[in-house]
Amino acid sequence: MASAMLSIASASPSATLSMHECHKGKAKLGSSNLSFNKEGSNPFPNTKSSGRVSMVAAVNVSRFEGIPMAPPDPILGVSEAFRADTNEVKLNLGVGAYRTEDLQPYVLDVVKKAENLMLERGENKEYLPIEGLAAFNRVTAELLLGAENPVIKQQRVATVQGLSGTGSLRLGAALIERYFPGAKVLISSPTWGNHKNIFNDVKVPWSE
């Protein structure tokens, strides 16, 4: 049986048929899709069929309609208000990012030097171990706790590399929820708007 099939993607205002047979053309009809069957049977059992044409309606409904919009971030909102402000003597203190005198992003010289060193070394792009880069984990713990801290000397610290601050907090929240039920997390005030939601999502209690 020679027939032409099509794929339907929701949230598409219209879809175009892709024909498998050389003697068949392409059909497009508003937001409806047509399927032609040489034998006259309907390849779509749940659709209405008339003669040799089966019609499938492409519903213009998004799968994300039931997801509510998140509230605006109070800190990033400062940057939006800053851009909208026409005052010539303004200074954005909302986001921790370096800027030049003409408000362009500024890359520190030490960052450029580190980037050049990485290029000169020509290091590969292999996957890291699941816990991350060992050298990075070691110096991170030493920076936070002090290299001479007894907990480091006694190897009582476990460090795992995460995706910046948000990813690291998510890993920590999952660990607390699974292995330390009932533990409470202390969050600074103010903090980033997503930090509280990270712990709310895994039902870990917190206080400021």
From TrEMBL:
SUPFAM superfamilies: PLP-dependent transferases. It catalyses: L-aspartate + 2-oxoglutarate = oxaloacetate + L-glutamate. One of its GO terms (molecular function) is transaminase activity. The keyword Ribonucleoprotein does not apply. The keyword Transferase applies. Residues 90-206 form the Aminotransferase class I/classII large domain. One of its GO terms (biological process) is amino acid metabolic process. Pfam families: Aminotran_1_2. It comes from the Eukaryota. This is Aspartate aminotransferase. Homodimer. Its cofactor is pyridoxal 5'-phosphate. Belongs to the class-I pyridoxal-phosphate-dependent aminotransferase family. Keywords: Aminotransferase, Pyridoxal phosphate, Transferase. It comes from Quillaja saponaria.
